Every structure is written in C-alpha cells, then in structure tokens.
C-alpha cells in the first residue's frame, strides 16, 4: 500500500536558451517551467515520476502541478494499492479533472513502482520490447541560417545523428525560413532526415506557400504549421503539400486526437507522453492511431532523465512509431538529468541511438544527492498527515 508521497519542485535549467516561433524558453532568469519530481513510497520501494510544463505552451505551471498533486491527488493515493490503476485514475477524475502533467508525474511513478515490485522493466508491462534501440534527434532553435547550419553540424557530428529537427516559423518572413532550411540542407548533406517544427506560426495559405518552397530540400516531416484550433487549416495544408504533416499542439487529449483523425488533418500525431496524462493514456492513443492506420511520434517537454526514461518505455513497446525519439533532447539540453553517472542518457548515446533501460521499473537510478541539492520546494503527504 502507498504510505507516503513527496512532491518537489527542482531547479534544473537549460544549458542555453531555445528560441521557437512564439518566443524564448530557458533564459537564465527563468523561474517557471521547472521540473516537478514525485516520489511514491510502497512497501520499501520508491517510484519516481516527473512533470515539466513548458509555459506559455501549457496551461499548467510547475507550482500548479505541485499543488494539484499535494492538495488533490496525493491524499487519495495514501493507503491505495499500486496495481489499482483504473480505480486511482477514476478517483483523480472525481476530484480534479484535466491537469494532465500532474497526472503524468503520478502515472510515471506508479508504473515505476509496479515494475520494481514485479522486478521487470516498464516496457514488459505495457506491450513488451518492439524497438530495442531508439534513434534520436536534437532540436536546433530558431536563428539565422548560418548559425542553424553550424549547430546542426555540431550535434550531428557529436552523436552521429541521422535526424535533426529545426525550429522555424517567422510569421512575417517565411522566406527566411526557407533560406535557413536551404543552408542546413547544404551543410549536412542529403543523408540526414530534417524535421521542421513551426509551432503554430503560419496561416494555412502561408504554410502551404512556404512548405511548397521547402519540399525540394527533402523534408522528412512538418510539424504543427498552423494554430492548434484550426483543424480545417491543418487539413488544407496536409492535402496541399507532399510532406507528412504532424499535429502536436492540436492533439493533447484522447478526444483531441480523435478530432484530428476525424478531420483527416494530419498524417502523424506527436504524443509527448505527459500531454494525455502519462503512459496509460499514451498507449491508448497508440491503439487509436493504429486503428486509424496512423503513426505516433514521441516528442519532448524537455524532461530530465526520469521523464525521458518513461518515454523510452512507451517508444520501445509500441509498433506504430515514427522515429526518431525526440525525448532524449531534455537530458542532452539541461544542466543535469538527475541520474547517477552510469545511467545518464547523454553518456549512453551510441551511433545516433539510445538503448532502452532494462532494469526494473523505469530502469534508471536517480541521484538522490543531486535531487535534494536542487530542490527548491518540497511537500510530504503521508497517512499521518492525510
């Protein structure tokens, strides 16, 4: 039975800011978008979970996540059996709907606990091993053409990448976006798959015009070119270009995924695993997409190694996956991934791939000393304090 839950807001920041079409994330004065780490205790085992809302792109904040868990969800979990997932999720629905990041942190920790209790990695609980090695990419922030090309080459050479992702989307200068892509393609050659993320920057007509000009540069994937609520516009883009179109901001919940499918608005769905509320719902979306003959892409909220490990298990146990695994970007791009040295993801990348952790639960060991050192705020919920 669950005896205690700890909730921590942790000071783990970006190594450098990341610019996307809607603004700058990760500057040195950033006090929001910090990871929330959850520890759930059960019969001598501890399960770890993580949420990292990236504002202003998420409704939740670090502190709203922490307080949703502390005041609403955690008291319901004390005394509960960890295997009663459906009952736990129903209880959470009854007191505070939505709040998917808060639920994801709990979901990750519960799956970690169940895996540790049964002495199996999470992927064995949710479908078994389909993809043992995961190809990765690195995201290049919006910048001038030469700088984006230079950074692309740097990361490709560092990790021997086969994929690269470019943040583009200048609302009033799509021609410069084309020049950026042209410069990157010229610099990296034709063997690298290039994925473009516009983060809702364009109108449908501008998106079509820009993507048409970009097609000759062998685009692998175009992500969220239009505002999230404009599914008709997304449909228009998808049916006007010769590149697969992916929905991200348009598809947070299971219901939104269904709407995208019904509208035929995308070829692929970007499922950042915390978006729908964690592993359980991400696997439900995988099933919905498989029924629609569509693929699932696993993106990132720039998690530390705890959240990235959870994403690894979803990727590795799902058939209809479109590579690469973007979720490794967090451990590469943050000051620390909160894991002990031998488990750090950035040290385990080989030839552009990462292997799935195969120890019990999440399969990684958290560096408790580092976690405590970086903790800004902490709350403990237990039977005595319920």
Short description:
The protein has helices at 62-77, 85-95, 100-118, 145-159, 174-188, 204-214, 231-238, 254-263, 279-291, 305-316, 329-333, 368-373; strands at 2-10, 18-20, 23-25, 36-42, 45-51, 133-135, 139-140, 163-167, 193-197, 219-223, 245-247, 268-270, 295-297, 353-355, 375-382. The chain is an alpha/beta fold.
General shape: globular
N-to-C span: 14 Å
* Major sheet description: 7 strands, parallel
Count the strands? Answer: 15
CATH architecture of the largest domain: Alpha-Beta Barrel
Number of helices: 12
Number of structural domains: 2
Return the CATH class of the largest domain: Alpha Beta
Question: Would you mind describing this structure in some detail?
Answer:
37% of the residues lie in helices and 18% in strands. Helix 5 (174-188) runs parallel beside helix 6 (204-214). The strands form 4 sheets. It has a 7-stranded parallel β-sheet with strand order 7-8-9-10-11-12-13, covered by helices on one side. Strands 5-4-1-15 form a 4-stranded antiparallel β-sheet. It has a two-stranded antiparallel sheet with strand order 2-3. The protein has 386 residues and is of the alpha/beta class. The relative contact order is 0.16. It contains 12 helices and 15 strands. The longest helix is centred in the first third of the chain and has 19 residues, at 100-118. The chain folds into 2 domains: 2-119 and 366-382, Enolase-like, domain 1 (2-Layer Sandwich), CATH 3.30.390; 133-355, TIM Barrel (Alpha-Beta Barrel), CATH 3.20.20.
